[in-house]
Amino acid sequence: MRDRLVVAAPGARQGEGGHHGQGGDARADPEACLTAAVDEIRRETGDVPLDRVPAVIAAQVAAVGPQGPTGQLMLLLRSSGDERAEEIRRGVLRTSAERLAAAAGWRPGDDDTLLRAQVVLAAALGIVLLRASGALEPLQSAGEENLTGPLREMVGALLDR
């Protein structure tokens, strides 16, 4: 089983918009798609140790190509207008940041470490969006091996204290 964070939509490959990668329209039922994504994240995401976080993020980011992020990932990044889907979306993002923070020794109440983890998550999601835009080289064509070093430095600077 491969380590996952939330950067790449779980269970979906490029161009798949439905929940569980079945090719449906992610806009048709945002709550169902988000719920499916959350269920899969819970099944597939183990506790990733801090020293593995940069490589896991690099692998997930490298999987996003010019086709752009999957429908599930886009549901995590933009509001659907559905109140229940919004709760799920915020919960997934919060849980993802808390998992990153926990890898760095975070405990509830430690807002500094949580903020640092949220910055790492935001940077990773930003990389996904910029890669999908096709506007920036060498970021667009960087592979997992090219991304791991810079991500290791960023994660280390923010979370390895």
Automatic annotation (TrEMBL):
InterPro entries from the UniProt entry: Tet_transcr_reg_TetR-rel_C_sf, TetR_C_16
Pfam families the UniProt entry points to: TetR_C_16
Top-level taxon in the UniProt lineage: Bacteria
Limits of the Tetracyclin repressor-like C-terminal domain: 51-149
Residue span of region Disordered: 1-28
Name this polypeptide is given: Tetracyclin repressor-like C-terminal domain-containing protein
Organism: Dactylosporangium salmoneum
